[in-house]
Amino acid sequence: MLPFMKSALDTCTTASTAVAGVNVGALSAEQYRTFAAGIQHHLDRITVLHARILQHGQDHGLFTGTGAKSMADWLAQHSGTSHGETASKMKLANSMEKSPELSDAVDNGDISPSTANAISDAVSNAPEGADVNDLLDAVKGADPKTAKAVAERWKEENSTESDEQREARLHKQRSLRFADPVDGMITGTFRLPTLAGREVMTAISHLAGKPSQEDGRTTEQRLADGLVQLCDAYAKGTLAGGRERPTIIITAPIDTLLGLSQQPGHTMLGDLVPAHVVRRLAEQAELQTVITAGNDILALTTTQRLATDNQWRALMVRDGGCRWPGCNIPANWCDADHIIPWEHGGKTVLENLALLCRHHHRVKHGPGTEAIGDASTLRMQLPDGTVVNCPPRPLPQRHSRTASAAA
Fold first, then answer.
1. Could you tell me where the beta strands, DSSP code E, fall in 218-295?
2. Nearest to 123 by CA among 107, 90, 147
3. Domains of the chain with CATH codes
4. CB proximity list for 249: less than 8 A, separation 6 or greater
5. Sign (positive/negative) of CA torsion 229, 234, 237, 242?
6. CA distances from 232 to 70, 225, 236, 239 (A)
7. How many whole angstroms separate alpha carbon 55 and alpha carbon 41?
8. In this structure, what DSSP letter does residue 321 have?
9. In terms of pTM, does the model score above 0.70?
10. How far apart are CA 190 and CA 185, in angstroms?
């Protein structure tokens, strides 16, 4: 080992030994807080230095010949740390290398390494013309979760994309992957737009049920059981669904719902929902109008815009499933779509309702697509001018006994 390397590591050992020698029980509350915060400051500094060292090794292939696939892989093997922890440090170093502004903010202690990682995607993929310094100023001293939410809003506010373009871009990035079994277990990952992900989480949580004292399962185990239960019901042909859905609450101004404003809505978890998505989802939602003055609720009303049970049964018989030609999604998995949107005066009557699967429902409400006709003559004109006829599915043919005998 080179002398300067040994000296640097010996200094780290001396410092850690000195910290370990402090009797924290003898400290006052103020002294204890100062000590704990000071240690965190030095840990953050070491984390940044370590991240840059690892990135240097990655850039120069210094893991080559060790059997490892990357520096993260090599360090995980030789130090007993997790691959994810090491990869997180390398992500930090890469982001700081790409953004001098982010690097300065971390070096100056304005933001922590964890916060820098939380906003790294926003910084590395900043919208054209956006000033990264505005984001860094907004997240000074913020924790990672808050900073990530601020970064998402900053990206949306500075984006040159329309809400529709952004939704389409995110929709194309959806994915579901499964790894090979390891020790009898399969690991999978999914990537979904926020609202779709919330829908999956809510549905599985609904199936998993609420925890109880008699239930010794962890939350993760209950959710895993809920997912398996859903798939098992599908395999057995006992999956009904379609009418009663787990609830996701979205709040939006009335002008957004009526198409008079593009102000987004938001979920109870703070996820922003673009205005056009709010209007599309409202087709299948129970709406409550809340009239407020400041923080006071003055009135609460409920509007029924869903198809009634009788209308739903009639749609199942008439349409048989998704109206889009070639689509075989069954009726139970479809939405009852208002051909003329409800917010544009469309009535909840059979002549203005048609069954569409979730995918073709999105297509129908996509930019440039126009619905033509009523339930009997429904056609979709696509952005390129193509007209798609969407008739009800033909009813199964029934042959009389005479015809059958003749055959």
1. 250-251, 265-267, 272-273, 287-293
2. 147
3. 29-160 (1.10.10), 171-236 (no CATH), 250-303 (no CATH), 309-389 (1.10.30)
4. 267, 268
5. positive
6. 39, 10, 6, 9
7. 21
8. B
9. no
10. 17
The two structure tokens encoding residue 388: 């798609």
Q: Which residues contact 255 (CB under 8 A, 6 or more apart)?
A: 261, 263
Q: State the burial class of residue 105 (Cβ atoms within 10 Å of its Cβ: 0-12, 13-18, 19+).
A: buried
DSSP secondary structure string for all residues of 326-352: T---BGGG-EEEESS-GGGT--SSGGG
Distance CA 119, CA 112 (A): 11
Please give the full DSSP string across 216-230, using - where no structure is assigned.
---HHHHHHHHHHHH
- pLDDT tens digits, residue range 40-52? 999 999 999 999 9
Task: Write out pLDDT tens, residues 33-81.
Answer: 999 999 999 999 999 999 999 999 999 999 998 888 889 889 988 888 8
E strand map for 55-164: none
- End-to-end CA separation in angstroms for the chain: 92
Structure tokens at 378: 């429904």
Structure tokens at 178: 């499964």
Q: Which two tokens stand for residue 341?
A: 């949107």
d(CA 72, CA 54) in angstroms, rounded, equals 8
3-class DSSP state of 353: strand
